[in-house]
Design a protein that fits this description.
This protein has 249 residues and is α/β, with parallel strands linked by helices. The chain has a single domain, classed as Spore Coat Polysaccharide Biosynthesis Protein SpsA, Chain A (Alpha-Beta Complex). The protein has seven helices and seven strands, in the order βαβαβαββαβααβα. Strands 3-2-1-4-6-5-7 form a seven-stranded mixed beta sheet, sandwiched between helices. Helix 4 packs parallel to helix 7. The chain is globular and about 50 Å long.
Length: 249
């Protein structure tokens, strides 16, 4: 796929929106994004990634894209999880920068404008949910998981679960991908020599649909993933080419 064939190349920023069974949120989400794009600080488009939804999410995505020239979509053949959906989106983006936001509208697309001003200096700018509107049980799980992750891999990230991020697209595509990697963007960016900025953002209660996360994929599975990331940190290879004769004079 070349940039001439890919319409996202016409924009500075592509907003990735992974979607799995969020039909009740799609109308509000599409309206919110459509209202934001003309006012965005960067020339932006939206790429929905339908992660094998079994409800009417796919039909609503297609309808929204038919109404707007700056809405695009890809559909995965089956549900493969958030990390896989994000990788598919990153692989298909040809704008120099990309953003990520969840389809549940618990973060505000307008607040991407709080993050994008830092892209000249940082490879990743990530939101931090300063006043979370989740249940007490979810907050406790996140606090434990974030504390364990910081202790194990020392990434300094306060809230890796915040679904509001912007980053350089080329850097994103260079990251090692694995199931659960979406929780480790700061550590993986740092592993590749990039810098990370954290910015406080708003958080809102879910008003439609149901969360796709549970005790296993929010708490227990990330513990195992931390071991994999720590192994990568210790085994990572970096090199610098001092000279070559590859270019013909």
């Amino acid at each position: 796929m070349t940039s001439q064939q890919n319409q996202t190349a016409s924009y500075d920023l592509t907003i990735l929106v992974p979607v799995y069974n969020e039909e009740d949120n799609m109308d509000a989400l599409s309206s919110r994004l459509a209202a934001y794009l003309p006012r965005a600080r960067m020339s932006s488009c939206v790429l929905f990634i339908n992660d094998g939804s079994t409800d009417n999410s796919g039909a609503r995505i297609r309808a929204a894209c038919a109404e707007r020239d700056d809405f695009f979509f890809i559909e995965l053949a089956r549900n493969t999880g958030l990390s896989s959906a994000l990788k598919a989106g990153m692989d298909h983006v040809r704008s120099p920068y990309l953003a990520y936001i969840d389809a549940d509208l618990q973060t505000a697309p307008e607040e991407l404008d709080l993050l994008t001003p830092y892209l000249d200096e940082y490879e990743l700018v990530t939101g931090v949910r300063a006043n979370r509107k989740d249940t007490g049980f979810k907050k406790i799980q996140s606090r434990i998981a974030n504390g364990f992750r910081r202790m194990m891999i020392k990434d300094g990230a306060r809230d890796t679960g915040c679904p509001l991020k912007v980053m350089r697209a080329d850097m994103a595509r260079s990251l090692p991908f694995f199931k659960g990697m979406h929780r480790f963007f700061p550590a993986l960016i740092q592993l590749e020599g990039g810098k990370v900025k954290q910015v406080n953002v708003s958080h809102f209660p879910r008003v439609a649909g149901v969360s796709k996360f549970n005790l296993w994929n929010r708490l227990l599975s990330p513990f195992v993933d931390c071991l994999a990331v720590r192994w990568m940190q210790k085994r990572h290879i970096a090199y610098t080419v001092a000279a070559d004769n590859l270019k013909q004079e």
